[in-house]
Backbone:
């Protein structure tokens, strides 16, 4: 996932507005500050994440075999990653045998070019789109806009984001940062500019909002000749693609147009139909806290006289084989994009998704984005390098993940890669590396540590009062701590000094 | 049973009272505690910040300092978790270079003997009542590493429930991280503080007089926010409560 410079922002053909972009997002601490300062956003996020968290724990607790399911899910995905080349070829053979066309895309540019070519071949100026993370990763909408092709997002939340000239902030509920009133305003102001307008007396009643969306989208479904989708799973043995959703809008895109193009990350495979059973149990409970999702669409190539008569499958690498080569990091490729890790993440709850500067937010974004951008192989930009540090390592994500991705383990692993790149590219150590080296030296022997403790204690007594350091303008980490938190001064007598003096006997001191 | 106290570098320098409390509790229960003077640090800060190489000498030092003890007891769940989950992998990564001979064997010998304080009291000594009394309302913060990494479960609550006169006041949203997170607290200070503010509000909503936890690092963060806001709530490590006036103070 390379991020080339983009001189002219892509323009939406109908609205003539530039498409919003994650490019230029500042490093996480700074991007987070903007989000933290927005009380409406914080309230929306807190309400939404708390509700889904509670629901998820309830439906997960219903299953006594949840842990076995997680283990099975992780094992199947590991098997896929081990046998990926053979399974991909098997998938290709099956899709071709069923009348589909398979394309191989090394990167985003390849994949976008393939989609553009197919769309052009049908002379279309618009496509309808099923909600898909992969096409966001490759910035397909932007690439199509440059070619003058409009993309209509048909997932309700994606449509809210698109109509609001906004960026997604959640994998599953990309408009999670919006409340009902904001959505009503967006519908009222924007729908008319791109199609059927919302009723003038629209309220923020969910039923009314859904009805307005339904009517607005219906027009687009009936008109569109080309649809683009991602896929949740691809069954290698039969060539079947599966899309799992709640609204049925995906089903409309997958059945009405003449041509269907599916862009699929190469890690999305499962070997056999039987394996799907595991994931169709894990995914809905983890994602929407439902026992079963309302719509599961599956198709195998083309079926004469039924549904799209031309099917293209674009198999996308875009950094995935690099991720695969990292023994610790590769577990991120097990991800089934359920967003459970986002919903339970205390950092995500405060900052929202856009602070992560990529369509993949939250804990999974913090480990996936840097890897797709090649962190294992070369130094990355500051924003990317800040992502593995955007976590308190509380571990809630690992507990929630249906395929047992040890996200804290990968975060720490990627932090080490950031540190190694910095060490290699700076001849003089960074201030942080310097202090870490100094601390490492002090901690190597008890004598050095004892001496440092005596010094620190003296220093603490100079700046502190009654055992605490309060508001104090200080540089760097000390300043960051003291801005809102008092700091305990080092003790007058360290534990080791006390022990040496008393042999551990002087309880009263 | 030869018991060693692993005080941790953090408590050694900042919270020596916690170490003294551990000694007092164990001694009151009839156990002698030794303090191996060569001990320094488990390497957690370096490890979690990405400075893996700096950890290996610390792992080496740790195994040397604590060799030969039956139990190594520490009042820090997150340091106990660091030892239990990462010392072996770090030693394995060092094996190829042979910089520290036999490190893997030494780690394998020492690691299983490392216990967090509440694990040691409940699992090894088989106790929940340590004979303390503490007539106050207490809010207990479940630190993430103690619950998720170490899996100490409700051991601290069971120990607290058995303290004479103590009333536990449950904290809402108890499974939420306080936002400390080691260097996260300074590298992402704004987010850390936002998390801490919410935690402080939940803790204050209990109306408790005292806040306690099994780890001082989180308490330093929450306590720093409380102290800056002028709150009268007292912050104590669990060991300090368990070391509270002994049986003689009991009615
Ligand atoms: S990392 Fe796990 S919890 Fe997060 S989205 Fe992927 S599968 Fe879901």
Residues:
């Amino acid at each position: 996932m390379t991020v080339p410079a983009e001189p002219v922002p892509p323009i939406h053909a109908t609205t003539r507005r530039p498409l919003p972009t994650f490019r230029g997002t500042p490093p996480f601490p700074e991007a987070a500050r903007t989000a933290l300062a927005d009380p409406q956003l914080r309230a929306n996020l807190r309400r939404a994440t708390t509700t889904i968290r509670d629901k998820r724990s309830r439906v997960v607790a219903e299953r006594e075999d949840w842990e076995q399911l997680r283990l099975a899910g992780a094992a199947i995905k590991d098997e896929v990653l081990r046998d990926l080349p053979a399974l991909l070829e098997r998938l290709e053979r099956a899709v071709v045998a069923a009348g589909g066309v398979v394309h191989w895309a090394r990167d985003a540019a390849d994949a976008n070019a393939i989609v553009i070519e197919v769309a052009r071949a049908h002379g279309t100026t618009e496509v309808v789109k099923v909600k898909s993370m992969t096409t966001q990763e490759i910035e397909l909408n932007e690439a199509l806009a440059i070619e003058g092709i409009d993309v209509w997002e048909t997932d309700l939340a994606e449509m809210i984001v698109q109509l609001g000239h906004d960026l997604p902030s959640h994998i599953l509920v990309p408009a999670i940062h919006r409340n009902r009133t904001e959505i009503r305003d967006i519908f009222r102001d924007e729908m008319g500019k791109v199609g059927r307008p919302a009723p003038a007396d629209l309220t923020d009643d969910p039923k009314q909002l859904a009805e307005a969306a339904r009517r607005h989208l219906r027009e687009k479904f009936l008109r569109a000749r080309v649809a683009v989708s991602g896929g949740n799973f691809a069954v290698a043995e039969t060539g079947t693609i599966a899309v799992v959703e709640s609204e049925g809008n995906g089903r409309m895109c997958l059945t009405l147009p003449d041509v269907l193009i599916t862009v699929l990350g190469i890690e999305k495979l499962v070997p056999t139909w039987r394996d799907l059973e595991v994931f169709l149990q894990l995914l809905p409970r983890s994602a929407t806290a439902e026992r079963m999702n309302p719509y599961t669409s599956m198709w195998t190539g083309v079926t004469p006289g039924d549904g799209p008569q031309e099917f293209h499958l674009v198999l996308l690498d875009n950094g995935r084989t690099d991720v695969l080569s990292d023994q610790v990091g590769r577990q991120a490729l097990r991800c089934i994009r359920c967003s459970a890790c986002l919903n339970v993440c205390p950092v995500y709850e405060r900052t929202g998704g856009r602070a992560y500067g990529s369509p993949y937010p939250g804990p999974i974004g913090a480990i996936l984005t840097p890897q797709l951008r090649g962190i294992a192989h070369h130094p990355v930009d500051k924003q990317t390098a800040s992502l593995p540090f955007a976590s308190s390592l509380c571990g809630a994500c690992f507990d929630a993940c249906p395929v047992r991705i040890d996200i804290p383990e990968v975060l720490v692993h990627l932090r080490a890669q950031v540190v190694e790149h910095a060490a290699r590219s700076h001849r003089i150590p960074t201030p942080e590396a310097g202090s870490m080296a100094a601390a490492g030296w002090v901690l190597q022997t008890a004598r050095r540590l004892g001496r440092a403790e005596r010094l620190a204690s003296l220093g603490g007594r100079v700046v502190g009062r009654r055992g605490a350091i309060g508001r104090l303008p200080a540089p760097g980490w000390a300043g960051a701590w003291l801005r809102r938190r008092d700091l305990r001064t080092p003790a007058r007598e360290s534990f080791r000094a006390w022990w040496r003096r008393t042999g551990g006997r002087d309880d009263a001191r | 049973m030869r018991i060693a106290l692993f005080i941790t570098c953090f408590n050694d320098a900042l919270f020596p009272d916690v170490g003294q409390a551990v000694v007092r509790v164990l001694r009151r229960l009839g156990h002698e505690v030794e303090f191996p003077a060569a001990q320094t640090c488990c390497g957690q800060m370096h490890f979690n910040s990405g400075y893996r190489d700096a950890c290996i000498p610390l792992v080496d030092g740790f195994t040397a300092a604590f060799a030969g003890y039956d139990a190594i007891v520490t009042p820090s769940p997150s340091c106990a978790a660091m030892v239990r989950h990462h010392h072996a992998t770090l030693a394995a990564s060092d094996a190829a270079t042979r910089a520290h001979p036999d490190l893997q064997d030494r780690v394998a010998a020492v690691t299983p003997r490392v216990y967090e304080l509440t694990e040691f009291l409940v699992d090894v000594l088989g106790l929940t009542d340590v004979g303390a009394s503490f007539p106050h309302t207490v809010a207990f913060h479940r630190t993430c590493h103690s619950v998720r990494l170490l899996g100490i479960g409700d051991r601290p609550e069971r120990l607290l429930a058995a303290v004479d006169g103590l009333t536990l006041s449950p904290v809402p949203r108890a499974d939420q991280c306080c936002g400390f997170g080691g260097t996260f607290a300074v590298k992402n200070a704004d987010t850390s503080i936002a998390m801490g503010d919410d935690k402080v509000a939940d803790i204050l909503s209990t109306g408790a007089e005292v806040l306690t936890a099994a780890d001082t690092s989180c308490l330093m963060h929450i306590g720093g926010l409380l102290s800056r806001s002028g709150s009268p709530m007292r912050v104590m490590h669990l060991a300090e409560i368990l070391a509270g006036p002994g049986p003689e103070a009991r009615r």
